[in-house]
Amino acid sequence: MKSRPAMLFVAALFGFLLLGAPAEAALPQAPGVLAAEDEPAEPAPSGADIRVRLLDQKDVPAGEQGPPVPGVLVKVADSEGNPVGEATSNEMGVAVIPIPGRGEYTVTLDKATLPEGIELAGQESLTVNVMLDIGLNVAFPLNLPDVEKTGFAQRLIDATTGGLKFGLILALAALGLSLVYGTTGLVNFAHGELVVFGAIVAYFLNVGAGMNLILAAALATLAGGLFGWAQDRMLWQPLRKRGTGIIAMMIISIGLALALRNIFQYVFGGSTRSYSQWTSQERVEYFGFLHLAHKEVGIIVVSVIVLLITTYLLANSRLGKAMRAVSDNTALSASSGLRVDGVINWVWTLGTALSALAGVLLGITLQVNFMMGYQMLLLIFAAVTLGGLGTIWGAIAGSLIIGLVMEVGPLFGVPTSIKEIGPMAILILILLVRPQGILGKAQRIG
Amino acid sequence: MDFGVIIDAAFSAAFGPEAIVLALAAIGLNIHFGYTGLLNFGQAGFMAVSAYGLATTVKTFGQPFWVGIIVALIAPLLLAIVLGFPTLRLRADYLAITTIAAAEILRLVFGSVEMVGTFGGSNGLSGYSGVYQRANPFPKGYVLDLGVMSFNRSVLWSTIVGWVLVLISCLVVWLLMRSPWGRVLRSIREDEDAVRSLGKNVFSYKMQALMLGGFFGGIAGIYYALKQASVVPTDYAANITFFAYAALLLGGAARVWGPVVGAMIFWFLMAGMGSLLNQLTGGVDPIIPSWIMTSIQSSMLRYILVGAGLMLLMVYRPQGIFGDRREIAIDAR
Fold it and tell me: Fewer CB within 10 Å: C terminus or N terminus of chain B?
């Protein structure tokens, strides 16, 4: 009787985990439908049937298949509960049950027939919907690794560190957008492409030229700075000289984004690729509760140091003060003798270099893809609007909040594949409540 | 090299459903950007809510076709209210940021794994357009061949329906923009503060413009969904918004026929270039060797040119072919 509350607690915890199950998208062989190419060569399907595949997943590394489990009885019933058929898994671990056609079926595994030492990790019966005439492949998780036993507190800590890491990367990119906006008033819709630029340059240096990734990252950051400098000199500065309006410049930035994105796809291809180093690393425990891979520690340290140096220079150096002066009041800075165009040129150089670095760091965490910048742009927009468009500390604070919301949201029921919905909601809410953002000044907005 | 194929592809696209979808979307943008000076970068989102409004109402919820059409016509109006309410009091860039983000999020939601039961995931939905297909009066196997272009039975039906829609839309825009209401919109584009000082509720007018332009975007979405007979999330990616901008600026913003002519020229060039590049890079022994450009890369080349063209147009001739430079809202903050 003593153990009753504990059992209830465990049951409740498992119930909660099941609710949050979409958050664990990386679960190896989650219950449900298997891709067709995963199916073993035999037995060949003749008519419509449900093929149940039973694999022992104990200590099996992700991406590989465990040994098959033979001799297990599986029953199939239709949606009204009438039995359709049953079969025992063969030496391939496959049980084939013919079915009359498309429709909803319940597949039940007889737990009593499981061999010694094999435990069912999920539910005993699954309801499946057969939509194709050839039938459906079903898998039951057997002897799953202890992923599901991670407690909520631990998952919250993991999600928080993940969110902070992503927020720091976001902050590097957002700072670039915010600096350019502050000094020129331009919302650069091609900013996401500056992020991809860094990631792709580092990819070619690292994988193409075989360079060490740290060196490649440093060179990609420099190349980013050069790219920003050249872009301002050749495109934006002449436009400012012509007196082109802000709306026209925004449309021009859209055109630039479209052109750059397709140039990247032209040279890089449409696939997602990873750098040659630091692709997958074991997570190590820090202070007893933080689980981070070495590369993640590296990303956090690098971005914190770069952000600290940048903000220190913006606050104290002569050029940084000039940048903030131009951002505050361009006309007054010009009449006080500041070379405004030179300052803006430096802003582009610095902003693009930071974005390129963000791209490399993002590429290390999520691999490199030509679309990653566009997807990040929306989050950057949410971050800078939340913090206050054009502000330095606002961009950083907003990015950290957006990063946290993105990663922690799935723990509270936000579907994982659309976790961008949280930042989007924040963007609309902040515009309703406080359009200048947390740290912005009210006169900027309208 | 077969120039007949290139010419046929170019003309068929310029007069066919591709150009019509773009023209309808650009007519909506013309009300936003051309007449009112609103920067909507999320026209794809307005198209998507209509297309998915129709498809889910009919397919997922089993309602009749016409109920689906009504839902599809209301959906973009609601989206305009949701996006316009927080942003229309603010400077132009806030609307741009919010609309581009919303369009992308909508696309992600429509394609998400979790909502596959409602929106069909990345495969989308189909089988909702029976009423539209059955109304096709042309007999089976009928092909209209005009020499420079050819349409099969279902494309011909979509083409006729589409041009009727474009004509009605242009008529509505023409009537509205010469009315006092349209004059207020244009004066908001020129000087918002002056209009406010004359006692007009600028916010309300901007909201009406956003809803009306979004409504035309919605019509484009419904038409796209009917012509394709399926809705797929990738069809409503941000590219279509940028193409619509390119078409609008090419033809001339703030002109009734600007977006229509722009869309036709845009697809004439895109399809013609596509067919040309396809012949140059396709086949066993392509004319352009594959180490210079593969046939996959050649389709990207077209998009690069669209982007570059959009930039050059905005820099050197923002009024496009028919527009008036003084009438474009490019100098506004």
Answer: N
CA–CA distance, A271 with B234 (Å, rounded to integer):
16
Q: What is the 3-state secondary structure (H, E, C) of B258-326?
A: HHHHHHHHHHHHHHHHHHHHHHHHCCCCCCCCCCCCCHHHHHHHHHHHHHHHHHHHHHHCCCCCCCCHH
Calculate how close chain A gets to B318, using CA atoms only, in Å: 8
Pairing of strands A49-56, A73-78: unpaired
Instruction: Name chain B contacts of A446, Cβ cutoff 8 Å.
Output: 89-91
Nearest C-alpha of chain A: how many angstroms from B41?
9
Question: pLDDT higher for A285 or A385?
Answer: A385
Query: If you count them, how many residues does chain A have?
Result: 446
Rounded CA separation A187/A181 (Å): 6
Chain A residues whose CB is inside 8 A of the B296 CB are 270
Pairwise CA distance, residues A55 & B281, whole Å: 47
pLDDT tens, A28-51?
333 444 444 444 444 444 567 888
Chain B's closest residue to A240, CA to CA, is B315
Rounded CA separation A319/A317 (Å): 5
C-beta atoms of A378 and B41 within 8 A: no
Q: Can you tell me the distance from the alpha carbon of A124 to that of A116, in angstroms, rounded to the nearest whole number?
A: 17
CB–CB of A225/A410 below 8 Å?
Answer: no
Find chain B residues with C-beta within 8 A of A256's C-beta. 307, 311
Residue B144: beta bridge partners? Answer: B151
> What is the ipTM score, two decimals?
0.90
pLDDT tens-digit readout, A318-359: 999 999 888 888 889 888 888 889 999 999 999 999 999 999
The pLDDT profile of chain B, 333 residues, written as one tens digit per residue, is 788 888 888 998 999 999 999 999 999 999 999 999 999 999 999 999 999 999 999 999 999 999 999 999 999 999 999 999 999 988 888 999 999 999 988 998 999 888 888 898 888 899 898 889 888 888 888 888 887 788 888 899 999 999 999 999 999 999 999 999 999 999 999 888 899 999 999 999 999 999 999 999 999 999 999 999 999 999 999 899 999 999 999 999 889 999 999 999 999 999 999 899 888 887 777 777 777 777 778 888 999 999 999 999 988 888 888 888 777 766 654
Token pair for A20: 């949050």
CA dist., res. B95 & res. B79, Å (int): 13
Please list every residue in chain B whose beta carbon sits closer than 8 Å to the beta carbon of residue A243.
Answer: 331
Q: Residue A283's pLDDT band (boundaries 50, 70, 90)?
A: confident
What is the distance between the alpha carbons of residues B245 and B249, in angstroms, rounded to a whole number?
Answer: 6
Residue A221, both tokens: 């950051």
What number of residues does chain B have? Answer: 333
Helical pair B17-29 and B239-251, crossing angle rounded to 10 deg: 80
Angle at B54 between CA B51 and CA B60, to 5 degrees: 115
CA dihedral for A323, A327, A331, A332, sign (positive or negative): negative
The dihedral over CA atoms of A83, A87, A93, A96, expressed in degrees to the nearest 10, equals -70
List all residues of chain A from 330 to 389 with a beta carbon under 8 Å from chain B.
374-375, 378, 381-382, 385, 389
CA A141 to chain centre: 26
SS (H, E, C) A276-313: CCCCCCCCEEECCCEEECHHHHHHHHHHHHHHHHHHHH
